[in-house]
Amino acid sequence: MISLVLSFVVLIIGYNTYGRFTNRIFSPDDRQTPAERLHDGVDFVPMKTWKAFLVQLLNIAGTGPIFGALMGACFGPIVFLWIIFGAVLGGAVHDFMVGMISERHDGKSIAELSGIYLGSAAKWIMRIFSVLLLLLTGTVFVNSPAALLAKLTPKFMSVNFWVIIILIYYILATLLPIDKIIGKLYPVFGVILITMAVCIMGGIIFGGYHVPEINFTNLHPEGLPVWPYMFITVACGAISGFHATQSPMISKCMTSEKDGRKIFYGAMIAESVIALVWAAGGVAFYGTTTLLNKALTDLGQSGTVYDISTGMLGTIGGLLAVVGVVVCPITSGDTAFRSARLILSEITGLNQKQIKNRLIITLPLLGIGAVLTQLDFNVLWRYFSWSNQTLAMISLWVSTAYLIKNAKKKYYSLLTALPAAFMSAVSLTYILMAKEGLSLGSSIAYPAGIIFAAVLFIIYLVLCAKKLPPSQEADSEMS
């Protein structure tokens, strides 16, 4: 329990120190934001800071910090270290930088930002990659709530029935102005997500459960190596490329650059707190990583959440679990499709103020999502997890390129270059080793991952040595 408490302390200190340091490097000012300058009543809509924070939290969180944290806890309490340091040094910096750079470029997506800072080829790669990731995300977060709802409702309400209902909701949430559904419901759901975590933490404390202290022993019952599997398994809660598709959505709604640390860095730290609670709760409730892994295998992620909640909190816990594992994934799925719509609108040039243009993009997008729901959930999750971390790697390199051109001192770009190199090693090593990748042994994958990261970092150092004069940001890059 001491390790868990200290982990919370590290996150709070990280927000107040490293978060301020990150903010100072970016240097927010009093310029007019896209929400005010480009207000269109659909996607560019000013939001109060507290509401923008809660919407961002739901956008990036959903059940990601619950499902991922429980699967990551199968490696043992070493997962606590990845959550806290991954979030403070990587994830929160990643979310903040992407959101703020997007805000400086009229709310443009990570794909367009890649084109501005890494070139045209990177833009098209990221356009395709981002849309595919968002489709996978939206599909993953249709299946899990639909499966649970099917278990809790009469037989005629099958999984496919609930898939259709959820997809209909996605159409509405994707089409309607952001303040009509998302802006009204997400703050409420954000409070529910936080309440779930608080209640589970209370259950751990008052239920007399034992939370093991941090150690470096790999306790995964299936023998999966910590490197790189744990760093892929726990994405939301530590660092997640999916967030790079969500931060630009809120960059269109913030009313002051100076709120960026609270909204972007703060929401990521809050998500990490939630992930810590569920990782601790999983091991504490089942007692061993072997039993936790068995529950995840036999009951699935949603069933395990329900088991832990009812076991610790009784009926109230069961109600919170049902609401959480139904509502929270849906709130990530709908914004995934909304983000995909916005990226496709940038590609096609269709003005999204007109509902006809929104329909042209949204209906085929949701149709593809409906087809993907017929695939195996576990396969989808594995590809989602890898593509998630690969997108984080690219987003961090985009942020590094931005800092090389705009930071007051060139070494400030190490803020994002170091986690970018780390995630480069993670991403390549995993896809070389994993069954859904090339299934190569660690003797090949480990050195390849290290060499890949080292080469990218050397390229970064060369670019730093050739640092150009500070750019005029949106004025020059977007012309």
Description of the molecule:
The chain is mainly α and 479 residues long. 75% of the residues lie in helices and 0% in strands. It is globular.
Descriptive key words:
479 residues, mainly alpha, 19 helices, globular, disordered C terminus
Explain the layout of strands and helices.
Layout: H1 2-16, H2 18-26, H3 34-37, H4 49-60, H5 64-72, H6 79-104, H7 110-118, H8 120-152, H9 159-175, H10 182-206, H11 226-233, H12 242-251, H13 260-286, H14 289-348, H15 355-372, H16 377-406, H17 414-433, H18 442-465, H19 474-477
Helix pairs in contact: 1-6, 1-13, 2-6, 2-13, 4-10, 4-12, 4-13, 5-13, 5-14, 6-12, 6-13, 6-16, 6-17, 7-8, 7-16, 8-9, 8-14, 8-15, 8-16, 9-14, 9-15, 10-13, 10-14, 11-17, 12-14, 13-14, 14-15, 16-17, 17-18
